[in-house]
Amino acid sequence: MMRLNIPLDFPNFTFTDQLKWLETWACLPSGTLFNAAAKLAGVANEDSEKMVPMIKGCVNEQLWPWPAYDAYIQDDGFQYSRDRLTDMAEQIYQKYRTNKMAHYRKSQMEPIKHLNPYWELSGRCASKSGDDQTASLILNANDAFWDDHCIPWRCENLDCKCSVFAITEYTMRKEANHL
Questions:
Q1: pLDDT, tens digit, for every residue of 66-102?
Q2: The model's pTM
Q3: Where are the beta strands (DSSP E) in the chain?
Q4: What are the extents of the domains in the chain?
């Protein structure tokens, strides 16, 4: 399998910005990941087998308080590992990976807004209740919604599979007729 080499930095969202965002999202003390940016950058495009142990090292192999994770697990959320520390580190890695892919997709969609002037949000983030993985929402690509809502490049949900696709006006009208 050929691995897609996605850049670490994106316009207005550098790798260090991503690490700072992840620290806030995972309730880690400031600097926990940021101070290890050079080491993490070396494995950032690798799989979880390399990055998860590095994240665990950043927290000195110690659990930390993370209320959103506790609530997620209490609600029988998906766990990558039975070991709590490994699972917490894996959740951080997965959020990094999905947000990075979302930023990459956004960087590809922005320049073609004139061709695909609508974006479709699919998944839990499109759901009014926040729990419907099959929900879908289509809006103009320039709508203010994309700047301040829970969307893939800013999604704070654990184990969220939301995604955004650029679509043509024809596709938007076709989808609207099926709703």
A1: 999 999 998 877 888 889 999 999 999 999 988 888 8
A2: 0.86
A3: 118-122, 136-140, 163-167
A4: 15-100, 113-178
